[in-house]
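User: We ran a pulldown and think these components assemble together. Before we commit to crystallization trials, I'd like a predicted model of the whole complex to look at. Sequences follow.
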Amino acid sequence: MSSRPQTNPQQQQQRPFNLVRCTAIVLLTTIVLVGLAVLIAWLVIRPKHLLFSIENGSVSNFNQSDTHMNSTFYFTIRAHNPNRRLSIYYDSIKTSVAYEDQPIAYSTIQPFFQPHRNVTRIQTKIVASNVPLTPGSARDIRLEKGTGEIELYVYVWARIRFKVGVLKSNERRLKLACSPVMVHFSPTQHFERTICEAGI
Ligand SMILES: *[C@@H]1O[C@H](CO)[C@@H](O)[C@H](O)[C@H]1NC(C)=O
Ligand SMILES: *[C@@H]1O[C@H](CO)[C@@H](O)[C@H](O)[C@H]1NC(C)=O
Ligand SMILES: *[C@@H]1O[C@H](CO)[C@@H](O)[C@H](O)[C@H]1NC(C)=O
Ligand SMILES: *[C@@H]1O[C@H](CO)[C@@H](O)[C@H](O)[C@H]1NC(C)=O
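Assistant: Here's a predicted model for the assembly, 200 residues in total across the polymer chains.
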């Protein structure tokens, strides 16, 4: 009978210690298992960067005054998805063309789905209609036109979702910045491919 009151305080001291230890072990195991699952998923999917470039560009109906400009630009954007398992929904795509730091015109592109290991060429037509120019831009564009080519920036903003098997990711924003895009006024001139920088 005298031994019971002695063991009781000992058990009460050990119980909180065991609880902490158990919780720690369960937590640690969970973290290790989740980490392993992420690692295996990553190894299976092996995500690779998406690659974008401007393959062709041309200009037509160009006309400018000292204050305004009209022009139609055509670009071929090459989108390369090198992934073996990831496919991509392009839910909304907007493009713009800029001269120096001044946006000239915008356009939207039809949403599309890109399968894995696929190259898709997107044709875009951007119409600049009576765009106001700063006196500096008007002068510089005139000077560049005299050389037969103009240096432009092409930007793309897209909302995309990734698909792996039946799993789909949340929507992410993709931004492309392509420069310098040298567009020739003479259609016989060879277009130099421009790599786009991509940010997700
Ligand atoms: C580039 O675009 C121009 C005008 O649209 C076209 O005439 C030319 O064939 C295209 N070049 C290539 C390599 O696709
Ligand atoms: C360009 O616009 C001016 C007036 O702003 C006009 O006189 C001229 O004919 C136009 N040129 C072309 C090629 O459209
Ligand atoms: C651009 O086109 C508009 C009509 O669409 C015309 O009124 C304007 O004069 C043109 N501007 C130039 C610089 O050609
Ligand atoms: C890429 O996917 C598009 C749309 O599914 C298809 O039309 C095209 O042929 C594919 N291109 C290649 C190189 O697989």
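The two ends are 72 Å apart (CA to CA). That may be worth checking against your pulldown data before setting up trials.

User: Thanks, that helps.
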